[in-house]
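An example makes the point: we let one protein speak, the chain in one-letter code, the fold tokenised, and here it is:
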Amino acid sequence: MSAQALVRVLLGGPTRQECARHIERIEARDGLTVPWPAWLEPSLADGLGKMGVDQPWQHQVEAAQALHDGNHVVLATPAGSGKSLAMWLDALDAILRQARAADAKRISAFARRPTALYLAPTKALAADQLVALNKVLRSCDAETDVRARVCDGDSSTDERAEAQAHGDIILTNPDFLHFSLLPQHERWARFFRTLRTVIVDEAHAHRGVFGAHVSLVIRRLRRIAAHHGAEPTFAAASATIAEPGRLAATLFGVGEQEITPIEESTAPSGRRTIILWQPPELAEDDDDQQGAGPEDPWAIAAGPGGSADGAGGGEDTAEDGGKGSPAEQDDDLLAIPTIRKPAGAEAAELLADLAGAGARTLGFVRSRFAAESVADGVRHRLPPSQGGRVAAYRGGYLAIERRDLEKRLRSGSLTTVVTTSALELGIDISGLDTVVSVGWPGTRASLWQQFGRAGRAGAEGLAVWIAGTNPLDTFLVNHPEAIFGAPMETSVFNPSNPHVLAPHLCAAAAELPLTDDDVPRFGPDASPVLEQLGDLGVLRRRSTGWHWIPVEPATSLTDLRGSGGPSVQIVNESTGDLVGTVDGGRADATVHPGAVYSHQGATFIVRDLDLEARIALVRALRPNYRTRANSITRVSILSEEQSVVEADGAWAFGEVEVVEQVTSYTRLAVPGLSRIDTIPLDLPERVLRTASAWLTLTAATLEKAEIDRSDLPGALHAWEHAAIGLLPLLATCDRWDLGGLSTALHAETSAPTVFIHDAFPGGAGFAEQAFRRRDQLIATVAELLATCPCAEGCPGCIQSPKCGNANQTLDKAAASRLATVLATSLALPARSAPPASE
């Protein structure tokens, strides 16, 4: 069925036309081919020709030539433009040419033979690249000459040993490089000695704390390669982003002048239709504010846990992609009254319609739980014969489950897959008709990467973005120019963050003593951090350099994904089977005693959580309720680094200490998500030292906004929620990368204060963006509060899925008056709030 026929399927319902707020049609584009480079091994060109690639696109040859000339390259072009082939050509040519030469001379095929390392942010992408590489090698009759191997946390001891001994190409992820390859580099000496090329795929996913970690892992890699006598060339493949050269330079630890950026795609692209979709408003007499009725228990379900605005979530693992830290919950999977049908329910309905029409569809959601919930909703709406072709794909699955799902994806036996960011990246799923993306994925680059999965290989495609009920999505669905007309973001990360830098200096010293010549690789802040580590006694300076002293592995000091500690294993207490895993930092809110946990359509109740043993015991049940964790937060100012005094208040930026504790959980009836009860919990406090921006208000400001003492807590709380929800529009972050707190009188500022802080130790640069772009943030908040049609507040403006106070004490009217005063004082446009009757 054509994309336009599928559009008619989606718009056929009685309210569907109104939901399609904007339809963008992007016309097809012809490609530009050029001859293969003259240096390319003839058998490789012949093999690619057998696969239907008679000639490459021009941008592919430009990238391959730059790598062949020994230059670092970043290729930042849209999805489906053939970046992988461009990155691999030079490495495959060198390895294959050496293998054939060695065979002709009857010498060892592995003597001084070039090697290549491929780094993917997800295990699924590495596995997919191996499949693609082996196809190319088979077409060249070189599958036995060149040995490509995936080596990651799922690999057996025998598989790792074989890769160490014979692997020409190792495909892995930054986590395995950090925890295994670099600490054991002597075992991999054969591989590192001749390392020619390092490919970093989906480089746009490296941002925030994760990007800083990966950048430092790569600096350690360059140092180890040099120790073994190699100076590899680096190649980064990225979605279209701003300043790709700067991104690659920071990621690789080299000067921007050493990077060759290639940003123009010469590949063809099929016609693409993109629909911005806003779920319909609920009827005023609908008793179920969440849009779920007794006839449809899958219309909406609560997430398995929650977090206060003072916390951040951390879903990213090597299974779930590395784009920061999206939440374990969705805005639309919580018991928050809403004036619109939740996006998860709408997605299940659209996906079922598309499946019924025979379309192959990929659905992107914002959390693991949403993947399970929406996939269940699709199955519920389809006949049993079709329901078996619907699956969820997310992190936390066992390796055997992931491999089976990936096999079924490639074979086409699955028609509808609901996934987290795990499948956003460049996995080749041929014949995909449609993408349905639920909620803002954090950046325009990520959204366009998702859109690019529809109609790959030049075919016509359809993409639908469903706006969630949160401030950012509400703003974007009504401002399509912010998606289609705005420039791409640049990737933001800071490898000089001492909280990130210190553990990597320890890891580097454990791999090899850190000499004075090594220190500049890690940036200008490395020397003072080394001295501090020496004062702490974890490093010791000797004549040969800095040495790691403790007996435990230095790599255990940090987690690249910012997940807050080692994973907690989820075990079925009846069978002893491992059900799945959850990041340690999310265990309190996700698998606390009494929590409801979902896995591939099965539902469990958590019976016990042992944080020391890192085990959560669960029992298979199907309760008629969901759970949401509740928390409390307090913030203390440790230092003030920057400040500015303005007419109606003062902004500051500095270091804070955030103390958070999950104190209870609420059981929510299904359907409807009405509150059943709240049950106390006894869990430890979690302490976070991070970066924060904060706004303090004057008495004159409050007087102009007509806010008295009784209005103040609700006004501040509502403004804080709106600001956190909209900051991702200005910074390359997700709302779950942030936390916040508002108080009518803070002990240290002696004034009404709103904090917006990073959810990572040491900060991630997002709160600093709030400080630097405060004028735009203030103006955007004012516009949102003035234009949102709700009377008292909704998830589209001031209600937050992260609120530890269950969205109590929110005053939209007072917050709107405050926002208008703040925006007016900046001489920025802001409209007055409409009367409540409107």
About this structure: The longest helix spans residues 83-104.
